[in-house]
Write the structure tokens for this entry.
Amino acid sequence: MTSNQPQNPVSMPGRDRFTSGLGVLAATLGSAVGLGNIWKFPSLTGANGGAAFILVYLISTLLVGLPVMIAEQMIGRRARADAINTLRKLAGRDRRPWWLIGAAGCLAAFLILAFYTEVAGWVFAYIFRALTGAALSTDPDVTSAAFSGLVSDPTQALLWQWIVLILITAIIIMGVSKGIERVTKRLMPILFGLLVLVCIRSLTLDGASEGLTFLFSPDFSKLTGPVILTAMGLAFFKLSIGMGTMITYGSYFRDDQNIPATASRVMLADLLVSMLAGIAIFPAVFAFGFQPDAGPSLLFITIPAVFASMPLGQVFMVLFFVLAAIAATGAMLSLLEVPVAVLNEQFGFSRRKAALITLGLLALVGSTAALSSSTLADFKILGMTPFDLFDYVTSNLLLPLGGLFVCLFVGWAWGWPEVRAALTNDGQLGNARIARAIFGLTKFVSPVLVLIVLLNGLGIIQF
Ligand code: PFF
């Protein structure tokens, strides 16, 4: 780090920024860590054979996730603008519509929020259910009925989603440094602390070792084509890439932030949280004789039954859902910031107005996801409920497309001299070799891998 910071020619005066390296780390990690670690990672690992799945996920994270994350943060910081304007500014005289990457990212972030806020709403509801003991039963049939009761009641589903929406909008209105940075800096250490506590409880149960064996000994016979592609898709979702989030956050990074180092730390810490979530969940699942492959219902049906079976289970269930709520909040803030920054900087709305407009639109579109298990259960588009459709379109289409085009832009249109200048902080960091390696991955390796995920997601190629 140096005090002699490069002056960015396109920087907009008065634009909010993260105030410290720690703030950048907390906010970015807050974005990466989310329901992906606590809901998706364990359920996918459980359903796809454990350690072998994790291994592919690790490789995808290194070869695709990390380079794309670095590329996004890099272009965001260089342009210091919202996701659409970043591409517009950096494309310069290149007449191709690179800005569409930002527009698609903005749409993806909005659609992810439409269903993510609903799942987050269930998590918030489960904190209260755990507190009152309402969701606790050792019988999975009872916990299953309790979960259906929540998701199929339109009033409750909408209420919890709106509570979540209002909470994140309020934080976003406070601003980048005073809202996002302050909140994530306080919440992230609490999340780690709670997670370690729940892990200790899980590991000290009789019969915990079976769960660890499941997590750490790979069974390669489970590695089919679709499983490999699912693991790659998860790497995308986990690191919040392909949808403008990291571009937008990168635009608030300090000039002296070492982007490759920051992104690597975020990736490692995010992996650690996923592994800790696995260690918190699977030993307990096995210790009480439950099946690890329950899929998405693992969090809301199996886990409450597991907690009900263990000593001090109610306390640990409250802690567990509080940590899940914290994780979801950091991720949602980063998603919401994408459209808010666009409305603010492209359309000139004040930050408050931009956040309120997004809130209104989300309440409208998101409610179709919230009602997907009740009022709108029979309303299908392309054979899917709105909830499933938003998840499908983002994970299988918009995210890989966003990632692919970011790679193409950085590797082929922007080029090495710009990348070297951006990643070495104009030659001040002495990390040119790392920058070169990242450039090589972004130019040749990541796009090919992403293209495979994309084509498979669309059913054009099948493994
Ligand atoms: N990375 C978050 C998670 O794993 O839960 C989800 C997410 C956040 C996806 C932000 C995309 C994003 F832009």
The pocket of 4-fluoro-L-phenylalanine is lined by residues 31-32, 34-37, 109, 112, 237-238, 240, 243, 245, 331, 334-335 (CB under 6 Å).
